[in-house]
From TrEMBL:
UniProt xrefs under CDD domains: ACAD
UniProt organism field: Parageobacillus thermantarcticus
UniProt name for this protein: Acyl-CoA dehydrogenase
Residue ranges constituting the Acyl-CoA dehydrogenase/oxidase N-terminal domain according to the UniProt record: 11-99
Lineage: Bacteria, Bacillati, Bacillota, Bacilli, Bacillales
This protein's UniProt keywords: FAD, Flavoprotein, Oxidoreductase
Domain called Acyl-CoA oxidase/dehydrogenase middle: residue spans: 129-221
Family: Belongs to the acyl-CoA dehydrogenase family.
Length: 389
């Protein structure tokens, strides 16, 4: 077993999930360079995930899923990301949404049950499409410009969404729109087959190129009245701490672990003719290796500790918003530092396209722009500290 996991795998079930994810990650690693260079969605990887029944891991057992915990979810995310970060992040959105819906019960039960059974039986994929160019991240409170209005007992939705990860592969889009009649914002569940829904290939980015987070265009898309699955102004939608978003830091820590392993393997074997031994024996290289592991230990122990608390003490979840945000803050910044140190150890060879470190360097920076951003985390932590009695 990888020495980085001996403290984190506590049960036979966790070990089994880790091994299943590791075998998949080994396959994904072989394809990662091609998908990154071509900026294509990793359909092969998702076919493997479907065959392994991974898309239903967070579906409740009552609907045929495995109902994994948040802690187990993070183990899988971190492991898959070591093979391919874009695949892990994409998978995380789907699995995380299902985990969140199972915990919060925000959707009408018949619709949630139907979707869960489709995920189990057909391994369908879903994700949210909330971001818009004019509003930026929904986490900052901007209202969508996408509109929904009732016509003849149906909803008609029009707008454009950005950053729609997995867009080419999705079976369902969860789209936020402002309801013209009331000014309220709701989430609508829209199948990919809906007339007027199309994907525009806009995703040409520095990192996470294979997530294919393209634009979704909705031109008078008509859906049934029950497609409105959630009102974002409802009590259930407000103030909820979102443990499922820890899939984001887990993914970037997985990328950092892959970079760490690459650098250590290089240091153990690379011996320039100016030395009588591999560079792993050079004090400065040893210091950098230690720094990588210190960053990873502090971030990972914090992340898994918070996930364990989330699983063990559901009654405390409403008080964990700041801790969850801080995990993301610490983990994504640690991941950036670890990849930087790995590249400094390997040196100029890390810049070549054939070296995975340059991909890790580009991919890991995307974590800084996933929610919540650092400034939001700093603000809410300061608010709690200053407003506490």
């Amino acid at each position: 077993m990888n020495e980085l996991y001996h403290l984190f795998l506590r049960t036979e079930r966790e070990r089994n999930l880790y091994e299943r994810a590791r075998r998949l990650a080994d396959q994904f690693y072989k394809r990662a360079r091609w998908y990154d260079e071509h900026a294509e969605f990793p359909f092969e990887n998702f076919n493997d995930l479907k065959e392994a029944r991974f898309l239903s891991l967070t579906v409740p057992k009552s609907y045929g899923g495995e109902e994994i915990s948040l802690y187990e979810f993070l183990l899988i995310q971190e492991t898959i990301a070591q093979g391919d970060g874009a695949t892990a992040l994409s998978l995380g959105w789907h699995l995380g949404i299902l985990l969140n819906l199972a915990e919060t019960k925000k959707w009408p039960l018949p619709i949630f049950e139907r979707i869960c059974r489709e995920v189990v039986e057909k391994q369908v994929l879903l994700n949210s499409a909330h971001s818009e160019k004019a509003t930026g991240s929904p986490a900052r409170g901007g209202k969508p410009e996408t509109t929904a209005e009732r016509r003849n007992g149906r909803w008609v939705i029009s707008g454009r969404k950005t950053f729609a990860s997995l867009a080419p592969a999705l079976d369902y889009f969860i789209v936020s729109a402002i309801i013209k009649e009331t000014g309220e914002v709701g989430n609508f569940l829209i199948p990919k087959t809906a007339a007027g829904l199309k994907i525009e290939k806009t995703w040409d980015t520095l990192g996470m190129r294979a997530t294919r987070s393209d634009d979704v265009i909705l031109e008078n898309v008509e859906v049934e009245e029950e497609a409105l699955v959630e009102m974002l102004s409802s009590p259930k939608a407000k103030g909820h701490a979102q443990g499922w978003l820890l899939h984001i830091p887990a993914c970037y820590l997985g990328i950092a672990i892959a970079a760490r392993n690459e650098a250590i393997a290089f240091a153990k074997t690379y011996q320039p003719n100016s030395l009588s031994h591999p560079i792993a024996e050079v004090p400065e290289v040893r210091r950098k290796i230690a720094q990588m592991d210190i960053h990873l230990m502090s971030a990972r122990h914090f992340m898994y500790s918070i996930a364990d608390q989330w699983d063990r003490y559901p009654e405390k979840r409403t008080e964990m918003k700041e801790e969850l945000a801080t995990v993301k803050y610490i983990a994504t910044n640690a991941a950036v530092d670890v990849v930087d140190l790995a590249m400094r150890i390997v040196g100029g060879q890390s810049l070549f396209a054939e070296n995975p470190l340059q991909r890790y360097y580009r991919d890991v920076r995307a974590g800084l722009h996933n929610p919540p951003s650092d400034d939001i985390t700093v603000s809410i932590v300061a608010d709690r500290a200053l407003n506490s009695k």
